[in-house]
Design brief:
With 711 residues, this protein is mostly beta strands. It is built from 7 helices and 37 strands. The strands form 6 sheets. Strands 1, 2, 3, 4, 5, 6, 18, 19, 22, 23, 24, 32 and 35 form a 13-stranded antiparallel β-sheet that branches. The longest helix has 14 residues, at 144-157.
């Protein structure tokens, strides 16, 4: 079956428009840069003008239509990119990935197209998923239009319950301009393939409405493309299930329904708001500014388009609309160590007593978490000294949308030395002191996927270490408190249950260490008993290292890069902390935006990546890293989950790759040597930076004493 369901025979269709003149030479990193607003518009215009596609605007109109949902860069094939980057080959053809909803045909589906060449597209072809599978129309992500229709259907269906809702909550749906109710939807949207039935958590629309469920959850069936045929299938109120709106309304009218009357929310100091309240015990000042990051002698990094350089580091980056940050061509000391490092998926599995809680299994790529990159606040989300960058997305819109200050880059003092040593002379003085300040360059963005905020960081350290990290914050996904719900979380407020859940984040790490032909080894340490060679009869016991490659005994790991996780996921869910596979061009991602609404038979199944029994010796390899944590909400998650203790990640570290720590090339160390040991009254201080950093920090020059004397 042809995916588009339209009658033509060729996968490639070329228009008559001639290609335009070639553009001026660009930085090589630009082959990975996100599409510009002009390119996004050009792709959409080109597709809208193809009569055989029959496309309509994304906004307005019926659901059963053909429309462009997403346009973003389609990265070039790796072989073509490396031929260009490493061997001076031709610049790869620049193309876009376009996701098109084909709803106005006999067999509706979702089809992905490659459109190019950019900046003046003249052709497109179908992008087949692995295995040649089609994406059913019911598996498509939600759109703004469907949400609007969902709200209209909900308001109409809830009309018989307006007396109940007003009496219990003081808020309502009907003729609402103030004191309104709203909803949060959960996913997956059903219990099996073909379903599109969503549980909606009804909430008071106040600041931080995620923490204000009213005790009513509604299962609304919206599978049919015609909204007039949508219907409420079940309801849950205060621990009980009901088969229809009428049943619940009649019980309330007869006075036979136990009603939970919620207290009136205060006009100020609402518990879900950020308004200051209470006092800190010590009384130390918080109404003045705290410590700040500064750059006393200017920036020590270079940003050219999407090329970022810092110390020994060089990389290209982009912000995918679908899944977020993606690094390419990551080099240290001019040598490529990774072709790609990218966020793939963020999952949260919930438990609960209410139907919405027990059904919730969020897969945030399905909510286009990369396009949820809203403005970063200077001085809060990033230091005042940061460089801020805009992002442009074409997602469920009729043109590109600018997201101001969606990314930031800044150098961060880590607050701990990168390395240091005090060489004691054991006579009250020292032979020398040496230290190198701790610094890292941070590339940051955020994803606010409704209630949760993820802060995504890549950190570059001077010693060749790269850290990938994500902080979780924002509002917890909470449901109405019932005594039965205590098994699945904590009562965090009077009528609020914080549901326990597990966060899992998946990364792709395409390492190219000294070329694309790599192998994978693990190292373990075990104790061994040996005879003491200098004292007969004594048996010292100590550790011994050993290595394994592909599960077979082998030597200890040699030169390369290691990927120890910063914090491993909890052991109670079946998954892999680390999986290593051969790289294939048709396995670009471990998840997809369709998995959320079709988790039963998803178009991309990561398990298939690792079940093909391929050798991984001297091959182009990809490491797939999973990090995560179990979150048992508690009252201190009100109003928001705090970032300390809720961050996970992993490191890429050189392992016998360099002759020594490459940060020795830094000119930022301090060395102090006494000129008159052991008195140490005259010191030689060596540093290669100015004596004083400048006025933004302590104005006095660096000094050191180093002695310890009796008093």
């Amino acid at each position: 079956m042809w995916l588009l369901g339209i009658p033509w025979a060729l996968a490639l269709l070329v228009s008559a428009a001639p290609p335009g003149p070639s553009a001026a030479p660009l930085d090589p990193a630009s082959i990975f840069s996100d599409l510009s607003p002009a390119e996004l518009r050009a792709v959409r215009t080109f597709l809208m003008e193809r009569p055989e596609l029959g496309l309509a605007p994304s906004r307005g109109g019926p659901l059963a239509k053909n429309s462009v949902f997403l346009v973003e860069l389609l990265p070039p094939p790796k072989r073509a990119a490396l031929r260009f980057l490493a061997h001076g080959g031709p610049r790869p053809r620049r193309e876009a990935r376009a996701i098109v909803f084909f709803g106005a045909q006999a067999e509706p589906n979702v089809t992905e197209l490659a459109v190019g060449p950019l900046p003046r597209p003249s052709s497109y072809r179908v992008l087949g998923l692995k295995g040649g599978r089609a994406v059913p129309f019911w598996a498509r992500p939600m759109t703004q239009l469907e949400y609007e229709l969902l709200y209209e259907a909900l308001v109409a269906a809830m009309a018989p319950l307006e007396p109940l809702l007003r009496e219990a909550t003081g808020f309502g749906f009907q003729n609402c301009s103030a004191r309104c109710l709203t909803f949060s939807d959960i996913a997956p949207r059903g219990l099996g393939p073909g379903e599109r039935r969503t549980w909606l958590v009804i909430q008071r629309f106040v600041e931080g409405y995620f923490l204000h469920p009213v005790g009513l959850e509604v299962l609304l069936d919206h599978q049919d493309p015609e909204p007039r045929r949508w219907a409420v299938r079940r309801l849950w109120y205060n621990g009980r299930y009901f088969g229809s709106v009428r049943e619940l309304a009649e019980l309330h009218a007869r006075g036979a329904l136990p009603l939970v009357r919620l207290p009136e929310p205060p006009a100020r100091h609402l518990f879900s708001s950020y308004e200051p309240r209470g006092r800190l015990f010590t009384g130390t000042p918080t109404e003045v500014h705290g410590a700040k990051v500064c750059e006393p002698q200017g920036r020590r990094y270079r940003l050219r388009g999407n090329r970022l350089e810092y110390g020994g580091w060089s990389l290209a980056f982009r912000l995918r609309s679908s899944a977020g940050l993606q690094l390419f061509d990551v080099r240290f000391g001019g040598e490529r160590v990774a072709y790609e490092l990218s966020v793939q998926e963020a999952i949260a599995f919930y438990g609960g007593h209410s139907p919405a809680a027990m059904q919730t299994k969020y897969m945030d790529a399905g909510w286009a978490m990369g396009a949820s990159s809203y403005e970063l606040a200077r001085g809060v989300d990033c230091p005042e000294t940061a460089t801020f960058l805009d992002a442009h997305h074409l997602l469920d819109a009729d043109g590109p949308v600018r997201f101001t200050n969606a990314l930031c880059v800044f150098e961060l003092p880590t607050g701990v030395p990168l390395r240091r040593h005090f060489d004691n002379d054991f006579q009250g003085g020292f032979n020398f002191y040496a230290g190198l300040e701790g610094r890292a360059l941070v590339l940051r963005t955020t994803s606010t996927v409704y209630n949760y905020d993820y802060i995504w960081d890549f950190l570059l350290y001077p010693n060749g270490v790269l850290e990938a990290k994500v902080h979780a914050t924002g509002y917890i996904h909470a449901t109405f408190y019932t005594p039965q719900g205590r098994r699945y979380g904590s009562r965090v407020h009077s009528h609020l249950l914080g549901n326990l859940h597990t966060h899992l984040v998946h990364y792709k790490v395409d390492l190219d260490v000294a070329g694309t032909g790599n192998s994978f080894e693990t190292m373990d340490v075990r104790f061994e008993n040996i005879s003491n060679p200098w004292s007969a009869g004594a048996r010292p016991r100590g550790p011994r290292q050993g290595g394994t490659g592909e599960g077979r005994p082998g030597p200890a790991p040699q030169d390369g890069w290691a990927t120890p996780p910063g914090l491993t996921p909890p052991p109670h869910l079946p998954r892999y902390h680390l999986a290593v596979t051969r790289r294939h061009e048709n396995e670009p991602s471990s998840s997809s935006i369709y998995s959320q609404n079709n988790p039963w038979d998803p178009p991309v199944t990561f398990e298939s990546f690792i079940r093909d029994n391929e050798t991984i010796e001297d091959q182009d390899l990809v490491a797939w890293v999973t990090v995560g944590f179990l979150h048992v909400p508690h009252s201190e998650d009100i109003p928001n989950t705090a970032t300390p203790g809720n961050a996970v990640g992993f490191f890429l570290r050189p392992f016998n790759f360099f002759d020594e720590d490459p940060s020795v090339a830094s000119r930022a160390p301090v060395i102090v040597r006494p000129l008159d040991p052991p008195t140490c009254s005259r010191l030689e201080i060596q540093r290669w930076t100015p004596p004083s950093p400048g006025a933004c920090v302590h104005p006095e020059p660096f000094t050191y004493n180093g002695t310890y004397r009796p008093v």
